[in-house]
UniProtKB/TrEMBL annotation:
It comes from Trinickia fusca. The chain crosses the membrane at residues 32-54, 74-104, 116-142, 154-174, 214-240, 260-283. GO terms for molecular function: ABC-type sulfate transporter activity. Pfam families: BPD_transp_1 (PF00528). It comes from the Bacteria. This is Sulfate transport system permease protein CysW. InterPro entries: CysW_permease, MetI-like, MetI-like_sf, Sulph_transpt2. Gene3D superfamilies: MetI-like. It is a multi-pass membrane protein. SUPFAM superfamilies: MetI-like. Part of the ABC transporter complex CysAWTP (TC 3.A.1.6.1) involved in sulfate/thiosulfate import. Probably responsible for the translocation of the substrate across the membrane.
Length: 296
């Protein structure tokens, strides 16, 4: 009985302190050991590579670093990367909102199939998706003769890069919003409808505000993948300097040309974008968790 009373007392104290009882039972040595292993892993695979990137980027001085970024090919690669992201991310935002709203709020035939298709880019290699587009739109592809007859070029041109980027990034927004909308349910939308709100008013004043932080989180992930995509874009770009090279492809070409300092200079821009993405992701995660806690 005494042991039972002690266990109940410990459970109550842990609950009041919002600390899981299991973590109190783990020896301090084990916890510190696991924490140390995690920190060493992060240092080896995250911090050290970042330090190397910036160290090599400035190896020849700030003047060479700025000159590498001011190079016409580098500026074209940066502009193309940003332009492709500006096209792909808004389109995926619209698709993600529509798909998640339909899947989470309605029952219809083909709902499970739509959910499966959304996950398709996660299970298909980006290189394979690039090859599929080549087989569809290439000169020897199914639609190649028709495109050539109408003087349209998709493969080895910017449209192909945009299509490949949209394909590999379209699950991110939808996959973030679907479970969020399902967890929230439809009670508020139904209440708004009973009060006389129109479909657009329900969407704008009820549904969208409830998912805004989850939407931002999905957009951040989508943008990060769009700017860093390599496999599918590499297949479809043709590696034309100053025209179809995105930043990842430009880094590869500079590295293959043994222009290491310039390659790391452009790579440092991608690293800065990644760090900014992590900060925004952390803010969005905290906002989303706070919003879910308030709703709960």
């Amino acid at each position: 009985m005494n042991r039972l009373a002690i266990s109940v007392n410990e459970a109550e104290q842990a609950s009041r302190a919002h600390v899981p009882l299991r973590s109190r039972m783990v020896p301090h040595l084990v916890r510190w050991g696991l924490t140390g292993v995690a920190l060493v892993f992060l240092a080896l695979f995250l911090v050290v590579p970042l330090v190397v990137v910036f160290d090599q980027a400035f190896a020849k001085g700030v003047r060479f670093y700025l000159a590498a970024l001011a190079d016409p090919d580098a500026r074209a690669a940066i502009a193309l990367t940003l332009g492709v992201a500006l096209i792909a991310v808004p389109l995926n935002l619209v698709f993600g909102l529509a798909a998640s709203w339909a899947i989470a709020k309605f029952e219809f035939r083909g709902r499970a199939l739509l959910t499966t298709l959304i996950d398709l880019p996660f299970s298909v290699s980006p290189v394979i998706s690039g090859v599929v587009y080549v087989l569809l739109f290439g000169a020897q592809g199914w639609l190649g003769p028709w495109l050539e007859a109408h003087d349209l070029q998709i493969v080895f041109a910017v449209p192909g890069i945009v299509l490949a980027t949209i394909f590999v990034t379209f699950p991110f927004v939808a996959r973030e919003l679907i479970p969020l909308m399902q967890a929230q349910g439809s009670d508020e939308e139904e209440a708004a409808r009973v009060l006389g709100a129109s479909g657009w008013q329900i969407w704008r004043r009820v549904t969208l505000p409830n998912v805004k932080w989850g939407l931002l989180y999905g957009v951040i992930l989508c943008n990060a993948r769009a700017m860093g995509e390599f496999g599918a874009v590499s297949v479809l770009s043709g590696h034309i300097r100053g025209q179809t090279d995105t930043m990842p492809l430009h880094v590869e070409m500079l590295y293959n040309d043994y222009n290491f300092a310039a390659a790391f200079a452009v790579a440092s821009v991608l690293a800065l974008i990644a760090l900014a993405t992590l900060v925004l992701k952390l803010v969005a995660e905290r906002r989303l968790a706070a919003a879910m806690q308030v709703r709960g």
